[in-house]
Amino acid sequence: MDKIPSLREFVYIIRNFSLKEKIAFFAFAVIFLTTSLLACWKISNFFLVETPAEGGTLAEGIIGTPRFINPVLAISDADRDMTNLTYSGLMRPDNKGGLTPDLAEKYEISDDGLIYTFTLKEHLLWQDGEPITSDDIVFTIQETKDPAIKSPRRAGWEGVAIEKIDERTVRFTLKKAYTPFLENTIIGILPRHIWQEARAEQMSFSEFNINPVGSGPYKIKTANKNSSGIVTSYELVPNKNFALGKSYLAKLITRFYPSEKELLSAYQKGDIDSVSAITPESAEKIKKSGSTIKNLFLPRVFGVFFNQNNSKIFTYSEVRYALDFATDKKRIIDEVLQGFGAKIDYPIPPGVFGALPSKNESYSIEKARQLLKAGGWKFNEEEKVWEKKENSSSKSKNAETLRLEFSLSTSDAPDLKKTAELVKAMWEEMGAKVNIKIYEIGDLNQNIIRPRKYDALLFGEIIGRDPDPFAFWHSSQRNDPGLNIALYANIKMDKLLEETRTISDESERGEKYKEFQKEIAKDAPAVFLYSPKFIYLMPSEIKGTEKMESVTVPSERFSQIHKWYIKTDKVWKIFAKQEN
To answer: Fewest CB atoms less than 10 Å from the CB: which of 1, 394, 473, 542?
Structure first.
């Protein structure tokens, strides 16, 4: 058997090579080594996959200043943004139109739809290391239901009883079946050991409202304040105890600004990386290289709602139909929303469960005029307005002459002001007289909407993932604090809305929703305009947002932030973490 040369013999052989032989040998050796390494690299890459890694920073700009980083008390967008980052609920929005378990390991619903039983995951911990138990769930809901605390979430929990079964199990019992109830369980849970000593009247004054202890994906590391003691920014870091796993982004900075103007200025100067709650026009203007606009489905309905109790002209169906035909909805979407929205003709927007497709009828001023003429209205050429004798069959000289003249109330939000101006121009072209009234949002809510002091109201409604039109269209909700701003009353629809809330079969419930919308279209209590997109401008280096499709409220953009990442590693496929 031939003996393999030793290293000394191998070196001796090479030394005896001629110069040409040495050059050829070393050239061959380099080629062989390079080829071998390349082959190994390719083989290794075949078995490797890129995965998220910890690291990176995101600076988010937010309009407003948080006052209540508390799921029971949160009232502003800034409050809700910070609450979503620092607290967890039993369930969590999945940004795809559904819900996924968060603190909950599982849940069961009784056959009659009255009992919901939740089991918590094992070994859950608060950010301070204390255990999370069913006592915390019971405490949070009891605090939410307490009238003295005045929680904005209280209405959703009225008539719901909660009891502790054991350390990991809680049971909710409803008086009546309510299919969308699961939505309630996304409310953040408070730590009982932190809050139990605070009486109702003390709760809003607690330091924990601005330095929360929660169980969400992030926890506050530092708070920066101005000379007046107002928080101007927070630095957050991942909560290692988060039920769905530690977040990838190593640092999250939230900076707060009093207006959109200052927010946009900070973005353009590079002080922040991402912004939301801005107008479509602003988003297009400030978008820069390395950034991307995510336009997410937002289940909201904007329209003009008619108050027939305040303005007699809206009791005539031909007037309501005519105003609908005289509204160029596509133009509003193009000019106001810059295309970031969808035309709607019904109270449930496209993309939401039970929605109907838009009508085939198109914008037509001529059709609107024909409807008014057929309804007995006459056009006053001198005044340029349609008029009608209230009782055309009466020969009385005292019969009242109605004019197609009314006020249109809305908030001072830029998109709503611009929409109001467009609608006014369209309706005046048809032959109406429209007086626009603009109010600051707080003033509008308190002094105009609550007492129902408007002729027509340009406003929006938050529909939700699983729509429940009851609050917006049932006759029992016509007066404050109800949300039936069209003051709509229809006995048939009342019964249908009541029945629909109890139906668990999705197919049957969807058909009921469609029946409801068709009836609304016949009565035309409002002109439905558009459903906007939620605009979120963020750096393109942020990954993990590819499956992000929808939010119900702006703060839900953070619902899956624990999956966002900038840094990556390569690991063998068998070791890669599987994402849902």
So the answer is: 1
